[in-house]
Structures are given as structure tokens and as C-alpha cells.
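README: folding subset

This subset contains proteins for which both the sequence and a predicted C-alpha cell string are available. Records are stored as plain text. Below is the entry for Aminotransferase class III-fold pyridoxal phosphate-dependent enzyme (441 residues), shown exactly as it appears on disk.
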Amino acid sequence: MSPAPHPKSDVWPFIPSPRIIDVVKAEGVWLEMANGTRILDAAGGAIAASIGHGRKEVAAAMAEAVGDTGYIVPTFLTPQRERLVARLKASWLPDHLTRVHLSSGGSEAADAAIRLARMYQIAIGQDTRWKIIGRVPSYHGATALTLAAGGHTARQKGFEPYAPHFPKVPAPYALRSPLGRNHPDEDIRCAKALEDTILSEGPETVAAFLAESITGSSGGAQEPGPRYWPEVQRICQQYGVLLIIDEVMTGFGRTGARFGIEHFDVRPDIMYAGKGLTAGYAPLAGIYASDEVLAPLAERGDSLMFYTYGGHPGACAAADKALEIMEREDLVARAATQGRKLEALLRDRLGQHPHVAEIRGRGLLWGIELVADRETLALYPAEAGITNAVVGQGLARGAFFYPGGTGDIRDIICLGPAFTISDDELEMLVERLAGAIDAAT
Ligand code: PLP
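--- output ---
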């Protein structure tokens, strides 16, 4: 018997009610709905399901872990966590990020990374340093602290009283650079804005700078020019500001490299990443830091508070198996290869579309920015709800696209399918996307 439509489905404004019903099964890039229709998951859910849905090996590893140990408080080391951390250090993390702390998701990881930066500054006698400089646009999570550090106006709305007002600098956005469309000095302008902000706030008040290596859904796979990260690194070092890089969406192969930072010349003091860590099979994220950050804390006997479910044995087993599959099937390289094919199809089908301002991305993380006027880059009015309309039209055509942007920055459609997506499925994805954009714009 098929489950009845779920009343909670109505909370998703972009899905035409009452058509929506829950997903009952998923395999590869396909979601099977209770009414028997199939939806091509062009976004891996929330850009998380990177090895494809329905991997029985992962389910078996999780079942074994939970059968063996159930829940174990993170104070104790379990074999599942030990194996995962060993794999992370051997094959995934940058060499200098030797310390691992586990949380249940990206928001918790971002929150912990911010607290770690503050704890470090206190431990080295810099108690006055508490500010976290963030960027606009960005998204780092839904806790009060991470909302405050992020630059996502729509998600911050109403919660401002709970959150301190952290300073913000622009994230490089070449298409709309105030210097001129696609101006080559946009990267330097934005790095300079960071230096100016550190100086105007007072370096002695700034604990860390927090940014995504490549802006995820809030900016639609927006990446900086080549001089940005080396210059940001230099500025952070000069003023004693820690560099925290968010790899929640870009990590674990999504951009065709293990982490987004590998495309640039940069060495974060603290990095955190979730989503692809378990390929979406279980809630888990990690905060990864250098010995230099942890040493002053260790001297004082300080440590980050653990999360009850951080490093849950079932989640660690899921992550260890998902990463093993990625290594065995060479899926990071496949993300790069399939990404190049996706790019070619997108440019061919949508490159000259009158309402497509830009198609941008890397690996299998792509953003398509829609505008009312391609020449002037004029936006559609917010009330037009173009992003949600495209997502709705996509569902009507059997594909799920991820709504990006921040409210102020719109309209952006994000793509992030599983790395296993076939050539035929890529073609289907782009056909359905083009149909949805044509219908909505
Ligand atoms: N950071 C980035 C870049 C993200 O994209 C997200 C979620 O989309 C988060 C942090 C928050 O992660 P979570 O939703 O797992 O709490």
C-alpha cells in the first residue's frame, strides 16, 4: 500500500501541492515517489548524496556498527571512529590538518570551528579577539552563531536579535563586480576589503576570518580569481587572524578535487566539512585543525565540548564505507570528468538563453544565474519567485534542482548530482532544466 501524501510536504513552497508525496525509495540519481513517478535528483538532495542513493554496502556497514556498539559517548574511542579518522588522515585531509573533532552536521561543525578559534585566541593571551569576519553571500549554518557569521539575508531574517553582528566583507562575485562585469581585479578588491575591515574593526578584536573555498548554494558555485586566497592568507597571518575555511558543500570530491581549497594556493588553520563525508547516508561532519591551533589549548587542558552524537559509530561506519567506495571507484576524478561533460551540455543548451546571465562551477557543483535581462543583468522582482518556479517546473518534468541565492542575491539554480551520474542522465538533467527554465522565465 502506498503511503498517503504527507501533510508536512506543504511546508515546501516550491512544490505544487497536492501533487507532492514522499520519496519511498532511491537508487543512483533517481528518487522513486509513492505514486510511482521517478525524479532525477540533480542536486544529490541538498548537494550531499555524492556516491548515489541506495548503496547497500553502506547500509550493511551502518547496521553492523550499530549492532556491535549502538550509541557510545564520544569520550570513548570506538573502532569505527578510529578507522574513519585513520582513513581521513591517510587519504583525504591536507597533511597539516592533523586534529579531527566530529559533529552531527555542518552547522554544528561551523559553530564548533568558531568556538575553537575563540578558544585559541584566549589560550594565547589574545582575549580581546572575538569577532569573526564573514562574507556576503555565504551560508555556514542555522545556529545563532553561524547565522551571525554567515551572509544569507533570507535565513537571518527575524533572528538578528539572537546573534551578534559580525563584520562582513564581500565574497568575490566577478559577474557583478562594482569594478565592472567580470573585472579581473575583483579578487584583489575583495581581499583588500578584508584588510580594510580588519583595520577598521581593530586587529586586536578579530579572532578569525570565515569563508567557503568556493561559495556554495548562496552564491551559486561562485569562485574567486587566483590571487584571492594567497592574498587573504597573507592578510590573516599579518594580523594574527585565524583562517577558517568551510568545505561543507565543496568537500569530499564535489568540485573534482578532495576539497575546494586544492584548486587554490591556501592553507587554512581550521577547516570543516560534512555532507559528502558520509555521502548523505548519515548525519556527520568534521572539524579539522592544525597542531599549532590545538597546542595552546592542550597546554591549558582546554578542549571543545563534544556533541552527544558527534562520531556516532553508525555515522562513522557510513563515512568510512562511503569514502572507501569513493577511493575504490575513483569518484573524485569522475566528478571532474562528468563535470566537464555537464558544463559542455549546459553551455550548449543554455549558454545563449536570454534569461541566463552566467553558468559557473567546477566538478559537479554548478550554479545557473537567471536574470530578467541578460545584457543589463537586471533581476526579476523578488515577488516573481523565479527560483522556486524553476524548481516547481523541474519537479513537474521529473527533476529536482536546488534553489540557491540569499533573497537579496537571486535567482540561482544549483546542480550537484551524484558523481556516478551517467552520460545519458546528464543529458536528461540538462533537457529537463532547460524545459523548466523556459517555462518559468
Ligand atoms: N556550510 C555550507 C557551505 C553549507 O552549504 C551548509 C548547508 O547547506 C552548511 C554549512 C550547514 O550544514 P548543515 O545543513 O549540515 O547544518
